[in-house]
Batch of 4 targets.
Target 1
Amino acid sequence: MRCRAAWPGTRPVRLFAWNIRQGGGTRLAAITAALIRRDADVAVISEYRGGPSAERLRVALGAAGYDHMTAVAPLHGCNGVLIAARHPFRDHGVLSVSLPEPFRIVGIDLEGIRMFGVYMPNMMAKVPYWEALLGALSEAARTPAIAIGDFNSCRAYVDEAGAIDKTAHFFEKIEAAGFCDLWRDRNPDRREFSWYSTRGNGFRIDHAFLSRTLAARRADPLLAC
């Protein structure tokens, strides 16, 4: 998932979100090469895996020019989210220390925008993460803000063929908080999956939610997903 936007008063910034699966492993060289090809200024990487994998990823990203990274690392063997950028940012750390695995949502301020990198767990385990994120987004709704990453969540019969996900109601709540689903806003009737299970059924579980302040720039040709 990639976005290119002109943040208020600044040059265009390219944002790229990617679930690299279990820390990337032997694919790290290919992963960093793909980021360079996409000319991404900011990378939001989910399934950032704690332990030696985390250090290998950080070294690889640093060598690729991403010298600025969120400091929080997942526990050994656990997966979280990492934000890496070519330019300095203010690192806010985890969204909430009260979450079971707080390293799954981290926040930064970059070029005048509040950004949340997200990697939610599966099934009902993601409910406290949604609730914590909604609280933060409600406070940031009047500012340029974005929550982007792997939410492991989807709308019934729209982002999935059936109604497996029992947390779909959070999409309505995030809209009520003043945020829009950028991809759905641009593709109201289109179905496109971002992940397929081993049984072949697809889901769109990766999202970018923009505050209305930022989404108002969607008419700008520089804002695209």
Note: The domain at 12-219 is CATH 3.60.10.10 (Deoxyribonuclease I; Chain A).
Target 2
Amino acid sequence: MSLLEGIRIALGSLIANPLRSFLTLLGIIIGITSIIAVISVIEGLNLYVADKLSNLGPGVFVVQRFGLITNHEDFIKAFRRNKKLTLADADAIRDRAVLASAVAVEVHASDELKVRGESVRNVDIGGITADVLEIEPYEVESGRIFTPAEVDHAVPVCFVGFEVAERLFPLVDPVDKSLRIGNREFRVCGVARKRGSVFGMSRDNFVKIPVTLHQRIYGLRNSVNISVKAADPGNMQDTMDEVRLIMRSRHHLAYADDDDFGFMSADGLNALWANLTRIIFRVAVFVVGISLVVGGIVVMNIMLVSVIERRREIGLRKAVGARPRDIRLQFLIESVVLSSVGGAIGITTAWLLAMAIRTWSPLPAAFPLWAPIMAFLICGTIGVFFGLNPASKAAKLDPIEALRADG
């Protein structure tokens, strides 16, 4: 019996009993749809995180009070131990880190903006140094960022996000217009290019002001973030080690003491995210695997029923010369085709679901090309594994007894 003939018979059986076939394949359809939908969302999130959240630029890392902490116990220890970082720490790194090409500072607060009676609350007010644009990806849409002299003299100028400009200065150019932050007047010197949102949260709702003026307004209680750019991006680890020595020396830490500060880099964020998604994927595979096993059992059950219903056909085939291995192959092909059709429906459903998620929700979704291949391999394995027993039973049927069967 040829492979094409076996596929033709299997498809004919599916078409002849559409409702039974659909109910048989429901478990596999649900399982394949679920696992590919999860893969699509995770793949989309991985690309999203790499592009939007961990895009610090090549050779860039940030020195923070806490860094990347993954559990509550470590955070409590770090909160008690780690010191707030200051402008003096940034100056020390700038003066002593020979492997760093640029050092910038940023500190955050939240406040209300007002323009001619219009107001926007809970806007992120970031105090930065002028060289932050050499390190962080803030692109200028119009105007300019403030100068080092304006930072040194705490001049009341501000660089606003695209959303702030749209909401407070509709239909007019915000550059050189007045803006009130809290109780102080500022002059808008530039507008940032639109950056979009992350999980539905805007990345354009911010105002940047000189860090010196920020500390005059909001005080010195907030720890600063120190962004460092390695002169050679391929030498970033050595640059981090150099900065670590400078910070440990400034904080008078003994050799056995833990760091009282932390680092954040694109590689660290991506590694943390990869570990998180790996756990999510394993849990999802375990849960979805139950559905696939149930689907496989249903396929085996319907194949056993098919063997009973088609005993006369099996006996006739054996009577005209079909060998046991031909019968076994026929039923294995039918089992694999049955599972693969369920997989194809599941893949199509998952693709439509991924497109719907990407279109109508803040979650990103990317449909990887390898997912359908993996799905068909899973379905083929299910077809072979759960079809082997019915195929063996069919192959062992006595042709004379089979021909005597009713129907």
Note: The chain has 13 helices and twelve strands.
Target 3
Amino acid sequence: MIDFNPLTPEYRQNPYPHLHALRAVDPVHWSAGGYCWVLTRYDHIKGFLADPRCGIGLDILAAQPALAPVMAEPYNQIIRTQMLSSDPPAHPRLRGIASRTFTAAAVNELKGKIQKRVDDLFAAHAGTRTMDFITDFAYPLPFAVICDIMGIPDEERFPLEKFTHDLMRTTDPTPMTDQCTHEANHAAIGFRDYFLDLVPRAKAGSLFAHMAEALNEGQMDAEELVANSILIFCAGHDTVVNLFGNGLLALLRHPDQVALLRQDPSLTKNAVEELLRYDASVQIARRLAFEDLELGGKWIQKGAYVLCMLGAGNRDPDMYPDPDRVDITRPNIRPLSFGGGIHYCLGAGLARVEGEVVFSTISQRMPEMHITVDNPPFHRNTFVRGLSSLPIAW
């Protein structure tokens, strides 16, 4: 038996030793405290996420008496029809509308604009050659990119930053205070009012304009437009922040890999995949079993809540030898970091392109970059793993 508790400070700072221990002893683990199944093997997770016998099951969860008060909060009601929380037939319809902007060709066309923003952010600190990489770079870059994609005017962006921070607090399983709940509700209502106000003046050609057109043509309703605009906006930048932060920390702790990337820029794409694998931003994907099923010699009963530990799967030694080491030449990297199945992250291609531009720029232009603290702190969120600060100099 193993005492698995992902809410401890030690786990939040570094979950991987705990996940290794759980995988070795009980890879399909019943957590009595969490009243859920916990999966830690790569093949189990990948298969479970793609299994049509599993899904989100939001209505089933909402019917649980213990969850009813939380599900009734405005922040949950406003986002309840987002595609991440939807099963067929709603999910493919909503994903089809949003995916028009995330084609490979459309994303690749953004490279020049992303590079310009990267250059400008570093140029702003050229005098001191220091910055907090999270607050000065990793957050403002993807925030600006998703605002551009959605067609949000420059002068209207500032309030949306706080809305995002307050709403993302709800992804952390730690019980929320009354103040946190109030702020999350205020954020969701603020997002709702903003996006509804934006509909008649949506910027032509933007992602939001496509969604507004779908609304006007009856392909989605106003509730779905709001919920999915919030999802795309928040997920489109808040998780990418952690790709940059977690990735840079990993690289700077493996200076031989930075040198290798500098010597051979063609490794950039593979380096991004390795950084996605090594320390994923989204650590957990949750699912519900729609029928009884067997996995790893255990029976998961219909209605059971299942946590797919993406970070654990990414460091499964049966899939990746020497998994706790960064190796940008590692072959056949297929990280679970963007989830799987029909809910595979819509913005995965965009995140990869942003990562390629950022890490290519860092490796080529800033060979003397280093961290100026010993142990940069991580946020307390167990589901979304990211640094709260990363002071660097070059």
Note: The radius of gyration is 21 Å.
Target 4
Amino acid sequence: MYKRISLIIALALLLLVAAPVQAKPNADTTIVAVNKNESVTVALENFPSNETYYVYMNYNGTYGVNGYLVSKLTTNSGGTILAEFPIPAGLVNEGIINIRFQSLSGKSVWWNWFYNETSAYNPYPSSGSSEPTYNRRNAGTPWFTVTSVVKGVSISGTTSNFPENERIAIFVKDGAMDDENWVEVSGFETSGGGVINVTFSIPSSLKYKEKIAYKFFGLKVNYPIFYSLVNNWNYP
């Protein structure tokens, strides 16, 4: 009997060690916005700090398991970040897509799903409106809208809803998932927040890269305000 109990305890301990765990109990992911067949923006909140995650997408009902690898993301010291991810060509025109965040160790896993339909910017449709109520980013969500790209030279756009009186540093890197070499290229003060027109340069070392990743890092709050990718070609 003693041997049987010991064996049960040993098996239980083995399962505890081997089984993957989720992120922090109060961790969460929120679908902020969707550009149909192009990208999804997700807010990660209270994830483990300074942890690198693989981001997968797959068909509905798969939890993202064995899906398309679309990005690799490292959380900040607070585990909270807003990031935009491309929708893979293999999932174009899928109605619902599963997205999965899995740490390099495989022990921290989180997943969500979203309708593959373009978000409406206005989070409060008028009474009786037939507009969809899903995939809407909340009023006040920090955002950066790219208005122009000069291939290999610069990226321009407009911020909205950034924190007031914040010092922002702008970093860029090769959009390839295995590259973690961020380069600081510019910065600005938000003053009263709201709408700010920003142009930042593409370093010569990145001017021939297919995609450029960029992030706006709040120096006072010490975490990225916004993170995204842009194609390195002339736009519009």
Note: The chain has two domains: 21-115, 143-231.
